Amino acid sequence: MNCNDCIEKLDRYVDRELNAVEVVELKLHLEGCPPCADQYEFQANLSRLVKRSCECDEAPPAFREKLRQILL
Amino acid sequence: MAESPARTAFAEEALTHLDTLYRGALRLTRDPDQAQDLVQEAYLRALRYQHSYQQGTNMKAWLFAIMRNLFWDRFKGSRKEDVSLDDVGEFVLYDKLRDEGAKPEADVLDKLAASEVVRAVEKLPPLHREVVLLVDVEGFSYKDAAQTLGVPIGTVMSRLHRARQQLQKSLYDYAVESGIVHGNGAQGVPQT
Q1: Domain B93-177, CATH class in plain words
Q2: From A16, A42, A67, residue closest to B18, measured CB to CB
Q3: Taking the model in full, what pTM does it have?
């Protein structure tokens, strides 16, 4: 695997969408290529940042209770 | 009104996904009151169509699909109006920061406020926003996201790709405006 192949697959690696063979190939490349490993870390951190920032909202307790009254 | 045990069990299970539905509705409507209305209607519809849910399949995805379909029906009228996304070209935040000499690139992410990330997500057109919500926030597989949205996996991937480019462009613009990085890429905070 060369750097272009690696970068092209990074999103799907972060999203856990690569097959087992692709994961092994990509991990091998990352172990021997600090620039690609650096970019992988950045993309993984960015993905975690988006998740962390958006998932802190929870349904208000009063709304949850209201739904329980309606549905149960 | 006494409900049947099966209906109660179904509702109990459905309510375990409330936070996911509420978050999704909040991001789609960008309004807490509208989000609650949307989620309540989605749950009522889910109970009405409980028979169409196949046990053992992904209930969270099924509920999210009901909620987002209601969103498009009620709040947008037509889903055709929302296909536009600013053409930012191939924008990769990492490349941008690296090319401009902002080192280390990861430090920039640490300085981005969560509220700005949310704002950047909410700036995305809903068709692209919902893919980010499903895959990036809720951790759906491309396959589950495709089923939820009723589109091919390739469409999920292309929308996700474009959404992320726009998202990274928005975050970069914010980083420049707020002085986290300067236009030339140098970080605003002195390096020690």
Answers
A1: mainly alpha
A2: A67
A3: 0.84
Instruction: Sketch the domain layout of chain B as residue ranges.
Output: 5-78, 93-177
Which chain B residues are within 8 Å of A15, Cβ to Cβ? 135, 141-142
Looking at the complex, report in whole angstroms how far the Cα of residue A62 sits from the nearest Cα belonging to chain B.
11
Coil/strand/helix, residue B151: coil
Give the SS3 label for residue B181: strand
- CA gap A7, B8 in Å, rounded: 48
So what's the ipTM on this one? 0.89
Burial (CB < 10 A; 0-12, 13-18, 19+), residue A22, is: middle
Question: Helix H segments across chain B?
Answer: 5-15, 18-29, 32-48, 59-71, 93-99, 105-111, 114-123, 126-132, 142-149, 153-177
Q: Block means of pLDDT (10 residues each) for chain B, length 192 residues?
A: 76 94 93 95 94 88 95 69 63 77 73 89 91 94 94 94 90 86 58 40
Domain residue ranges of chain A, discontinuous segments joined by +: 3-71
Q: Which CATH entry fits the domain spanning B5-78: 2.60.40.150, 1.10.1740.10, 3.40.50.300, 3.40.50.1970?
A: 1.10.1740.10
Q: How far apart are CA B148 and CA B125, in angstroms?
A: 18
